Amino acid sequence: MQQRTIFGRHYALAVVAVIFVALLAAAGLRSTPGVLMVPWDRKRRLACAGAL
Predict the structure, then answer these.
(1) Domain span including residue 39
(2) Helix (H) or strand (E) holding 12
(3) How far, in Å, are 7, 39, 42 from residue 25 at the CA level?
(4) pTM score of the predicted model
(5) Among 35, 32, 36, which Cα is nearest to 24's?
(6) How far apart are CA 52 and CA 15, in angstroms?
(7) In 3D, which of 48, 29, 51 has the Cα closest to residue 40?
(8) pLDDT in tens, 1-51
């Protein structure tokens, strides 16, 4: 009796899916500080300009 799996015999698809998700997560983690610092930098500039 043959056992059914999600990907069948194509384990390469599972490997590609895991690598894709890992690369997507890594790209998101790397870009997070840049996304968060832009609004913080604008607030800091406005505060500095208001102090002058």
Answers:
(1) 1-52
(2) helix 11-51
(3) 22, 22, 27
(4) 0.56
(5) 32
(6) 57
(7) 48
(8) 566 666 677 888 889 999 999 999 999 999 888 777 766 666 666 665 555
- Overall domain count for the chain: 1
Residues 28 and 19: their CA atoms lie apart, in Å, by 14
**Nearest alpha-carbon partner for 51 in 43, 14, 2:** 43
Query: Cβ neighbours of residue 14 under 8 Å, at least 6 residues apart?
Result: 6, 7
Residue type (1 letter), 2: Q
Tokens at residue 51, please?
């102090």
Task: Say how many residues make up the chain.
Answer: 52
